[in-house]
């Protein structure tokens, strides 16, 4: 009888989890699920996938424990699974940016297309919020905002910003944020507001990172 090598078994499990994450569509789906519980139809639309394709990827993520599902009538709703999934995705992102020049170049190119947009760290934002010195602007969609947002944030979806500028103060700094560090919605919004004379910066991270850090959120 062949003796099972426990270490080999453990590494096999690690490899299976890594294989599940080794797909850009699944990583994109996880980013959207990280905003809050969503129906599979909505996740498919946000990710630009067919319903069948999105369902297939979500099933694989579910088998690996990255997402959980429940039925609500005829709808199937997905949420993140248990465990430090957001932290895992953040670590993957940080390592990729550190180790891959191609990724750094892609990120730099994407974020420089709107000119120089200044960012603010999570730590500085916490201090500024304690002083009551900033207005938080959430430029995600209304349904994402309803699932959870930073305390006191104002929700103006990016596509509505032009016609709702009067809702923003012109005497206080604005901090815009969206889905995550690669979400260009807040980059576009920040650049547009700067052109109109607002004092505005972009949060380096997004809502999932804020929530993963154990900071307070509102729904």
UniProtKB/TrEMBL annotation:
<dbReference type="InterPro" id="IPR001307">
    <property type="entry name" value="Thiosulphate_STrfase_CS"/>
</dbReference>
<dbReference type="InterPro" id="IPR011991">
    <property type="entry name" value="ArsR-like_HTH"/>
</dbReference>
<dbReference type="Pfam" id="PF12840">
    <property type="entry name" value="HTH_20"/>
</dbReference>
<dbReference type="Pfam" id="PF00581">
    <property type="entry name" value="Rhodanese"/>
</dbReference>
<feature type="domain" description="Rhodanese">
    <location>
        <begin position="130"/>
        <end position="219"/>
    </location>
</feature>
<dbReference type="InterPro" id="IPR036390">
    <property type="entry name" value="WH_DNA-bd_sf"/>
</dbReference>
<dbReference type="InterPro" id="IPR001763">
    <property type="entry name" value="Rhodanese-like_dom"/>
</dbReference>
<dbReference type="InterPro" id="IPR001845">
    <property type="entry name" value="HTH_ArsR_DNA-bd_dom"/>
</dbReference>
<feature type="domain" description="HTH arsR-type">
    <location>
        <begin position="6"/>
        <end position="100"/>
    </location>
</feature>
<dbReference type="GO" id="GO:0003700">
    <property type="term" value="F:DNA-binding transcription factor activity"/>
</dbReference>
<dbReference type="GO" id="GO:0004792">
    <property type="term" value="F:thiosulfate-cyanide sulfurtransferase activity"/>
</dbReference>
<protein>
    <submittedName>
        <fullName>Transcriptional regulator</fullName>
    </submittedName>
</protein>
<dbReference type="InterPro" id="IPR036388">
    <property type="entry name" value="WH-like_DNA-bd_sf"/>
</dbReference>
<dbReference type="InterPro" id="IPR050229">
    <property type="entry name" value="GlpE_sulfurtransferase"/>
</dbReference>
<dbReference type="InterPro" id="IPR036873">
    <property type="entry name" value="Rhodanese-like_dom_sf"/>
</dbReference>
